[in-house]
TrEMBL record:
It comes from the Eukaryota. The gene is CUL4_4. Residues 2-86 form the Cullin N-terminal domain. This is Cullin-4. InterPro entries: Cullin, Cullin_N, Cullin_repeat-like_dom_sf. Belongs to the cullin family.
């Protein structure tokens, strides 16, 4: 029963995270605005994962600890966030952040 419940929670979290992060794509070309949207999504997700963990604490403390290849619900949530932010952006989010950082560094070097 623990395994089935864990898989259902993981599946629901994954569906939610996928939809939430896909909804951010294309909302703003401004990197600062985009990152603030990602930050809000991250904070909302953390709050929800803490609530889920609180509800399923017994599952986290028994099934997860007794099963060697299963992560805690919070660790699973972190993995899902990382996975879906990469998928939702198709690498675009990371490219935008790195591109912006490279421009900032070049401008800093020129002014030095």
């Amino acid at each position: 029963m623990g395994g089935s419940l864990y898989q259902k929670i993981e599946k629901e979290c994954e569906a939610y995270m996928s939809a939430a992060l896909k909804s951010l794509v294309g909302q703003s070309e401004d990197l600062v605005v985009f990152l603030s949207l990602v930050q809000k999504c991250w904070h909302d997700f953390c709050d929800q994962m803490l609530m889920i963990r609180g509800i399923a604490l017994h599952l986290d403390c028994t099934y997860v600890k007794q099963t060697s290849n299963v992560r805690s619900l919070l660790d699973t949530g972190l993995q899902l966030f990382h996975k879906h932010i990469s998928l939702a952006s198709g690498g675009g989010a990371q490219n935008r952040v790195w591109s912006s950082e490279n421009v900032r560094r070049r401008e800093t070097r020129r002014s030095s």
